[in-house]
Amino acid sequence: IILPLEWFPLNKPSAGDYFHMAYNVITPFLLLKLIERSPKTLPRSMVYVSIIMFVMGASIHLVGDSVNHRLIFSGYQHHLSVRENPIIRNLKPETLIDSFELLYYYDEYLGHSMWYIPFFLILFIYFTGCFTPVEEESRMPVPALLLMGPSSLYYWYLVTEGQIFILYIFTFFAMMALVMHQKRKGLVLDSNGLFLFYSFIITLLLIALWVAWLWNDKILRKKYPGVIYIPEPWAFYTLHMNNLH
After folding, report:
1. Is 204 a member of any domain?
2. Is residue 150 part of a domain?
3. Domains contained in the chain, number
4. pTM assigned to the model
5. Taking a C-beta distance cutoff of 8 angstroms, is the pair 49, 31 a contact?
6. Does a structural domain hold residue 14?
7. Helix (H) or strand (E) holding 98
8. What is the pLDDT of residues 54-93, one digit of tens each?
9. Residue 231 domain flag
10. Residue ranges for the chain with pLDDT beneath 70
């Protein structure tokens, strides 16, 4: 959206797509290295299946996002459902709309589930090994404190754009329960565990602020009905900031 359209034509991958491709290669490798450092781990076969599912889900999401974000240049509005979008509603034959709904399903539901469930599972397994009986190891260095802001912002974007609040909050509750359980044994979180735990706490605060800010937005309320109301940043963008690109 920021870079000139002439550099990345609509029928070619965008700059964001190339970053996403790099993410799909680098992140699984980092997750494998992360799980190797944890004293508690899943069976090797389960780790491999989780990483394979992660790559599949992230790749499905890459294709769906690439098409959806390119549709913005044609007037697609993320704050509306697929069938409510003017450019989709006028398609002929109408069966083409079903194809776009299938694309949306692969992107927003199947892709997200296959991507985020293994991701949070590996994070939690890693977290279970981040406990120590030594009080001095339960301190974060200054660089970790500085990185906590970007880390929390990243998780905020994953939860809001991915619409995975249920998965995130259950992971967070499991982490809290584990912390209280280990405390009875005389164990405390080490610096790595503190970094992850505090990042999740700040993420929850960011989500609360985001929801409070958009609480009375009637259009987004219509797009996200139900008890859990957490608008996507992309929907906010096409509704309130679309004139910037």
Report:
1. no
2. no
3. 1
4. 0.84
5. no
6. yes
7. helix 95-105
8. 999 999 988 888 888 788 777 788 778 888 888 888 888 8
9. no
10. 1, 40-41, 137, 242-245
